[in-house]
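thought: fold this chain, then report.
action: predict
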Amino acid sequence: MKIPYAKREFKVPENVKLTIENQTIEVTGPLGSLKKSFEGTPLHFELSENTLKIELRNVKKRELSLLGTAEAHVKNMIKGVTQGFTYRLKMVYAHFPMNVKVENGFVKIENFIGERSPRYAKIVGQVNVKVEGDDVIVSGLDKEAVGQTAANIQRATKIKDYDPRVFSDGIFVYSKS
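observation:
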């Protein structure tokens, strides 16, 4: 079943500059700028008087979900350049205190459950990672990069072949803002 026309529109805040070039959207705000490409999608973007319109023409029902996805991506970009995103992770250990350091685009986790070799988690994109006591703070403008970096850190401390009820060591996300 083809849908002849569908659109979504929303207001762009005054302190945010949005530019559209082909299928690439660039959002610039007080904290910085982000760029995202929507090439390969049947979406049409139009900016008029601080209102962004996202349109679809002659698409199948399955492709209709692209409207909401594109709108969410652009809104997250706007929120990123105005407020930013911060994830807080907590280091949990019972016996062996772990050491966490940021080195060359990686988070180095030493002495995790008494292991001799360190574990590494990749920092994605332009993300800042700070270690304050037992907290690891991941912050940046791009929600996808901040979330993926936090997930990489949490996944690096996943314990295999141990009973999770007894061994609850790891680094876990406890706050998103």
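thought: worth noting. The two ends are 40 Å apart (CA to CA).
final: tokens above.
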